[in-house]
Amino acid sequence: MSQPEASSSQETTAPQVSLYEKRKKIYAKGVRGYFDNWRIVLVILTQALFYGGLWLEWNGRQALLFHLVERKFYIFGLVFWPQDVIYLAILLIISAYALFLVTAVAGRLFCGYACPQTVYTQLFMWIENRVEGDRNARMKLDKGPMTARKFRIKTTKFLLWGILALWTGFTLVGYFTPVHELINNVITNTLGPWETFWIFFYGGFTFLMAGFMREQVCKYMCPYARFQSVMFDPDTLIITYDPERGEPRGARKKGSDTRQLGDCVDCGQCVVVCPTGIDIRNGLQYECIGCAACVDVCDQVMDKVGLPRGLVRYSTENAMQQKLPQTDIVRHVVRPRILIYTAILILITCIAGWFLIHRIPLKVDIIRDRAVLAREADDGSIENVYMLQIMNTDEQPHRYKIAVDGLDGVKISGPDEVDAKAAGLTSFNAVVSAPPESGKKGSNPIHFTITAEQNSSITLREKASFLLP
Prior knowledge:
Elements: H1 2-12, H2 34-53, E1 57-58, E2 61-62, E3 64-67, E4 72-75, E5 78-80, H3 85-106, H4 109-113, H5 116-132, H6 135-143, H7 148-174, H8 179-187, H9 193-213, H10 215-221, H11 224-231, E6 238-241, H12 243-246, H13 269-272, H14 293-305, E7 312-315, H15 317-322, H16 326-333, H17 336-357, E8 362-368, E9 375-376, E10 382-392, E11 398-405, E12 411-413, E13 417-420, E14 424-434, E15 442-452, E16 459-468
Helix pairs in contact: 2-5, 3-17, 5-7, 5-9, 7-9
């Protein structure tokens, strides 16, 4: 009886292993250097486009406006309707190929410099550093008890984060609702339900992801981090640590023999500055976003100890193994895979650009009057009635001439011209008549030709059917 009891006791006291690692807050240290300067430039550029593009004007309207209520997208001088969804598909294809190309050439370069998660994390961290201080000050503040000073500092930080997050949400919604109308709605407290939802939803997620989750988004939520390895190959530029040069690691103590040591002084600065908290010396990891902060700080350490730069650097797997010089690295980067990606990207972009340049700013939907399929007129001819929905996608009003052909003697009875306002939808009822002997009984194909009187190059030919009893 005592043996089973002992076994049961051992089972109950067995250690439990958690499947999830408890998050350790990362206090990334700021670093200045060549790559950090590029990150600052990209942050300024992307946010100038995002926050500033909202206020650009074109022909008396917002230059960039995706007007959901009117179902029109305004992009400077272009007006897109729902029927132009093909251009959105082409844009997504071009974006995907561009991302594949950048990834195949330089790994997660987009993640480290232009990804919205990275950009807004940089902005939020800049505010945090200004309010709470450097890395050591932030760590000390978080470990200390809640005092009046700590409460004031934290409240100030969260308030500034909240203002930036809400302004970001407001800016996003301003691209879908005219911004001046949106401002007036905010002032008069008449925001619509969807505008209110998206301002606070997008602002709240910006606050949460850039302020608190940070590297967790890159490590656990972003799908790009998971499938990026499929697009890597041994000639992809990545952040690398040179173990042959750096190992064995060891501190350079005064008077000690350093002949058996590698160049890595084991200072740990590459880990301290990493926004995802990894040690690049352990090799390539999916958490690495390619920001090159470790490159900047390692170069500075090498300068201080009088060793050559490049212990941590942009390189490739083949270059590290074969010890290729810089010129050979570039030659290996420009490889058949890259040339194919580039050729496809250029081809798709050129084709899309050609169609966009030659796009006719006119669309027509022809709807038959189903109440009366066909009727006999006083002169014995057969009449069909159609409703033409004319979409003038140009920002100038046009007068269109409407003609019809396809049957002997077919013509438009009544007005054959219509005025269409700029970037507007105009409905026109066309009565088409034809002799009863002009075609076979039943459905007969005909064509409508709609031509702008002021510009004959704006012409469209649409097919319809004419019923003869």
